[in-house]
DNA sequence: CGAAGGTTTGAACAACCTCAACCAATGTGG
DNA sequence: CCACATTGGTTGAGGTTGTTCAAACCTTCG
């Protein structure tokens, strides 16, 4: 079991540069846990005592509003670290972490994050890289939510998921964990009704194949078209939504203002 | 000039624990720059060669879409660092940085980030903390964009700005830098027309005072009411928008699932 | 003073949410 | 193994929010 874990640990980006001896040390300090689908790993508001690594499976980071709505902020895939609140200066969890499928998890006390960072340069580097990637993803989500229509946002969400956790299957690329219409709605800021309508339409057009909690994208290119706002049936191919004020987009700012730094 | 910079530097969170000698070293490695309002500090797509600190003023981090729309991702206030793409593993800028008012800026080559982090523990800690705070802010924005009505989102944006850069004036709390309706629209994913209508209505109700590029919140508490979705004139005080499915929100997940970690 | 940028406001329309009802798949207990 | 509950999915009708279009106004600044 430990040996097995070590071998998987060696494939996780934050630890893949460590030698066998270092891996053993890291593994021995970890607490292992198998969590069935739907298990809550930690909950919004709790003290952030440990950080986690996914050996296999997927975890959703979720926030809930006072009105009882869920918003899926991020998906974390195998090989990745999550729950780094403490090193980022948060004493308590801001999100709830729920397994999206059956998971093997390791966790360490937050104090070890500093130790690992000091001892293994690649660990520090890799966690920073991962924080950066997530900041990018959130930033992209903000742009999408601000500018895109629901159909485009759903397309973006599917593309993001097949990019992060897609696996090739017969009819296309499948999202590698169970995902319901409600889940997709929670990612895109819409309702399951709208998601259902959109996916049904896409299935008729041959863009996807879908069964219960299960989506295969059979025409990724067509999906990109939809996500980008091209392939709009009626509209003239102009702005997807808000009036592209001035439309001076093509000239970067730098061409106008003197940039020095 | 250098001396003046050093004194201001000593007040910036990332450097406030340094002794005078260290401060001088940091200052001597920096490039100083005064940037008038509307100056582009760096542009989306450029290589990330330096990181920056605001001595005074405010900087907007902006992203543009293919259709020419701007989205304001974050505001950065005096004393804060920005442009940390490189340590986060990004070779090129993902956002454009534009000064929101007249700014005094310092910048350093990205290579020094590692050096400062190694040499000054408080610097490393503080930059992590700041990354965490921004991740929180983005996460909050995602929740707002996903669940709140336009009026609530605008209220949230105003509250966030007075929280970060508000100053007390005669009639209430003023946002500490110039801000147009269009800017607010770019923050909330709406149009300047809608922002204008909402602010006009608020001004009539005595919640704010506003002139060109200039907003004073005179009733912060009322603003919080609006932001949270209370104070809705017609609706019964239930869910602000999407149907609060199951509304099991009050019981934290942890009460249902065994949480161990 | 004219131009440019910011703001206001009305009217029409589109997107999408809400309500409502129903169906299909899966799981459960007798 | 079947009745039944549960969960996820589908689909139509109607209503609300907020965008789009259009036009005018005001302020600031060269």
Automatic annotation (TrEMBL), chains A, B:
Q: Does the keyword DNA-binding apply?
A: yes
Q: Name one GO molecular function term.
A: DNA binding
InterPro entries attached to this UniProt entry: cNMP-bd_dom (IPR000595), cNMP-bd_dom_sf (IPR018490), Env_Response_Regulators (IPR050397), HTH_CRP (IPR012318), RmlC-like_jellyroll (IPR014710), WH-like_DNA-bd_sf (IPR036388), WH_DNA-bd_sf (IPR036390)
- PROSITE patterns (UniProt xref): CNMP_BINDING_3, HTH_CRP_2
List GO terms (cellular component aspect): cytosol
Is DNA-binding among this UniProt entry's keywords?
yes
Which part of the chain is the Cyclic nucleotide-binding domain?
Answer: 14-107
The alphabetized UniProt keywords are: DNA-binding, Transcription, Transcription regulation
Residue span(s) of domain HTH crp-type: 148-221
Q: What is this protein called?
A: Crp/FNR family transcriptional regulator
Species this protein is from: Frigidibacter mobilis
